[in-house]
Amino acid sequence: MNNQKQFGVWMDTQRAVIVGKEQPEAESISILASVTGDKAAPNSSEKTAHNQEKSLQAKFFKEIATHLQNATYIHVTGTGQVQEQFLHYLADTPQFKNTRTDESTNNKMSEDKLVAFMTDKLN
Questions:
Q1: pLDDT of residue 26
Q2: Which long-range contacts (CB under 8 A, 24 or more apart) does 15-19 make?
Q3: Are 10 and 114 a contacting pair, CB within 8 Å?
Q4: What's the rounded Cα separation, in Å, for the pair 43 and 118?
Q5: Could you tell me how many helices (H) and strands (E) the chain has, helices first?
Q6: Per-residue confidence (pLDDT) for residue 43, from 0 to 100
Q7: Is the pTM of this model over 0.70?
């Protein structure tokens, strides 16, 4: 698995941190990007608010996916259920059809702890 494109993603509903190797042959894993999602504006219509929330989530997931090009393995961790929703998004996206994915649940952690955690998962 050493020369494959492997990534780790820690995420909650508003923020995602992507870690991996800058190049597949690189020795160490580092933070590649941080993505922040937009918050939905308050709305009196429940249907409109729900649609806006879904639209913003899709935009958030798409932005994360731009950092995972040619991935062969992705480990997603974080709080709540958003990582499960993201894995469903990846499964429904043709470019990630053959990508192996894995998930776990974790509280927010420092960048150093995240890199150490993902180093164990990706090696």
A1: 77
A2: 16/60, 16/64, 16/78, 17/111, 17/114, 18/64, 18/67, 18/68, 19/114, 19/115, 19/118
A3: yes
A4: 38
A5: 3, 5
A6: 79
A7: yes
Cα torsion through 10, 23, 58, 97, rounded to 10: -100
Q: Amino acid identity of 77? A: T
d(CA 23, CA 75): 17
Question: Which amino acid is residue 23, in one-letter code?
Answer: Q
Nearest to 74, CA basis, from 9, 120, 22, 21: 9
Whether 60 and 51 have beta carbons less than 8 Å apart is answered as: no
Binned average pLDDT, 10 residues per bin, the chain of 123 residues: 79 94 82 92 86 93 95 92 93 93 90 92 82
Find, among 77, 66, 96, the residue nearest to 12 by Cα.
77
Instruction: Tell me if residue 105 falls in helix, strand or coil.
Output: strand
Domains of the chain: 6-122 (3.30.420.60)
